[in-house]
Amino acid sequence: MNESRPASMSSFWMPFTNNRDFKAAPRLLVSAEGMYYKDVDGNQILDGTAGLWCVPCGHAQPRIVAAVREMIGQLDFAPTFQMGHPAAFDLAEQLMEYTNHRFGHVFYTNSGSESVDTALKMALAYHRARGEGSRTRLIGRERGYHGVGFGGISVGGIGGNRKPYGPLLPGVDHLPHTHNLAKNAFTRGEPEYGTELADELERIVALHDASTIAAVIVEPVAGSTGVLIPPKGYLKRLRELCSKHGILLIFDEVITGFGRLTTPFAFDYFDVEPDMVTCAKGLTNGVVPMGAVFTKKHIHDAFMEAPPGIELFHGYTYSGHPLACAASIATLQTFKEQNILENAASLRQYWEDAAHSLKGLPHVIDIRTLGLIAGIELQPIEGKPGARAYAAFKKAFADGVLIRTTGDIIALSPPLVLEKKHIDELFGKLATILKNLD
Ligand code: PMP
């Protein structure tokens, strides 16, 4: 294994990276185990973000490593077009069990972005298969992040991710976001204010007519735009309105799936049943790229009941890749054997108290928490949005903690196998950094 610095870093065009700045002072990770990364200089770095929200079971879980090794020696690749392999079917059954059979079917992708575009396409094709082809509009939300495919950025609500690529998909509307610092700052759990923002869907329905709207897609908790937690009752209200108007409700659970809120999925936590769920990341504990879309039985049935032929013209070469399936089956086993959700739930209060202990430190204008997520919003430096949090991120890495920042918000989402001592280390170091931040 190469643990030394690369001879050159000029050719890799890094994703979502300030490439010029990075290459002047690179951060290089060479190994990982449990709650820690090790960098190229041999420093231990506490993983406060589970990689990119994708390593709920912690790094180098032996069962997952072994399962991938075994599968690669047995079946390196198998198509799932007009054929398949046992692990793909076994995993699908296990995933349906993991969701308490609230869904009937699972479609495999390779990422969160692909899951989102798959779900949007399924929604459009579903209505068409049922003879309601007029339902072509898609509704997203301001400050929503749904990956980087053209469908995902169209329903997404982040200007910077959309503007360079316009005009994007036609017929897309956005609900307002629910973030309200004036009314909800320093809330623990779901904020009180903003439930009625779900009713904006009625405004969109009145403008276009329900018969033109295919689906609403939201993240139950928006992660990439800075931990935006839904107001009490908001998601239930969205569900009611979608049902009333025959609109499909899609939850993008790419970050909330697999335990982030200490329940298997956010729909469990909020007790709201969407028609489809997109997931990725924790599905394989981040070990092999994989995403999935869970659909209610009626979605799949609509295709089965349509005239015979191939039902959904969609799929990826690597849908249900054997290595990904093996990693995912082992991930589900690891969740069970190591009581990972129970561990996360037992630390919820401790986590919340530790996060909120940063209140009063310089620049901190909001702290919000739910499950094992925390968002810490900093006062932006005038004329330099994002600069203060980015400085905190760089300082944290140098001090041995991995945090994530988006704009001036620090987002924390550790592996769910953490212990109290890791929470102490994370927030202890963060407090020192914030005290010394310009
Ligand atoms: N949806 C949501 C809610 C996400 O948070 C992300 C990634 N952070 C994606 C979609 C895209 O996933 P990927 O990067 O695997 O394409």
From TrEMBL:
Per UniProt, the keywords (alphabetical) are:
Aminotransferase, Pyridoxal phosphate, Transferase
Q: Which CDD domains match?
A: OAT_like
Per the record, the GO terms for biological process are:
biotin biosynthetic process
**Family annotation (Pfam families):** Aminotran_3
One GO MF term on file is: pyridoxal phosphate binding
Organism's domain of life? Bacteria
Query: Hey, which family's this protein in?
Result: Belongs to the class-III pyridoxal-phosphate-dependent aminotransferase family.
Query: What PANTHER family has UniProt attached to this entry?
Result: ADENOSYLMETHIONINE-8-AMINO-7-OXONONANOATE AMINOTRANSFERASE, BETA-ALANINE--PYRUVATE AMINOTRANSFERASE
Protein name as catalogued: Aspartate aminotransferase family protein
Species of the source: Zemynaea arenosa
